[in-house]
């Protein structure tokens, strides 16, 4: 996993996957906007072939851990969730990571994860975290 600072307070995290079958390349991406004491996950994408392997949870969990480690003044991570059938796996992922609903709207809900936060994924997934790319 690597991170790139794209503008003031905005970061893109990329996840690559390699396994015994080869290098799958970039399979996950998260765009995070850090402001004041919160980190807002503005966009999260994962290859649907990889999500069934638990990669999405491991990737986003590692992103959240790294954000808190790099910015200890953060008090929470925030994620907006649009209630659509195709987004249901994302809601499960948020719940697995410990996010709780703060506000429910007609089309959109807000989920929050309090910091401090540490994620240790399944023992069969080995994460390597790279420093910021420029």
TrEMBL record:
SUPFAM superfamilies: Acyl-CoA N-acyltransferases (Nat). This is N-acetyltransferase domain-containing protein. It comes from Paenibacillus motobuensis.
